[in-house]
Amino acid sequence: MTITQEQFARIEGCFPVQRGNVRVSNLDVLNAILYVAENGCKWRALPPRFGRWHTIYTRMNRWAKAGVLDRVFTALQDEEIIRIRVEALAMDSTIVKVHPDGTGAEKKTVRNPSGDPGEDGRPKFIWLPQMLEGR
User: 53-66 and 68-78 are packed helices; what angle lies between their axes, rounded to 10 degrees?
Assistant: First the structure.
């Protein structure tokens, strides 16, 4: 999915006006967004022909928060430039094993299984309080 200059001219009113010294045009950013959407790649994997990935991601993030992307994709559909359906779907195949305590198993309430503390052996640590002189 790549938008040509003629197609971009039909929807150019949806984009904010570029001011200042801008290295990446709105057309290149839109084509980069469509590339990521089509190929499902990470932003860092964008080909160099689109420009720096961080610049494109930052502008896309601003557009998404300001509602520009909604207007752009609606205009792309209305002008029949591209036919897409935007859906959000998240699937994860990670399996997490739960500790037996998390499954509702009975918890141990007795720390000392034997009744005699001497049978359990020596303690693992000993507190030795020290007195500071002059206090």
Answer: 90
Tokens of 40: 């499902």
User: What pLDDT digit, counting tens, does each position of 8-41 carry?
Assistant: 999 888 888 888 888 889 999 999 999 998 888 8
Cβ proximity of 63 and 45 under 8 Å: no
The count of other CB atoms within 10 Å of the CB of residue 35 is 18
State both tokens at 133. 């002189």
The DSSP output letter for 134 is: T
Helix 53-66, helix 26-39: angle, nearest 10: 90
Give start and end residues of each alpha helix (H) in the chain.
Answer: 5-11, 26-39, 53-66, 68-78
| pLDDT above 70 for 57 | yes
Task: Give the span between the Cα atoms of 135 and 61, in whole angstroms.
Answer: 61
Two structure tokens written together for 103: 């499954």
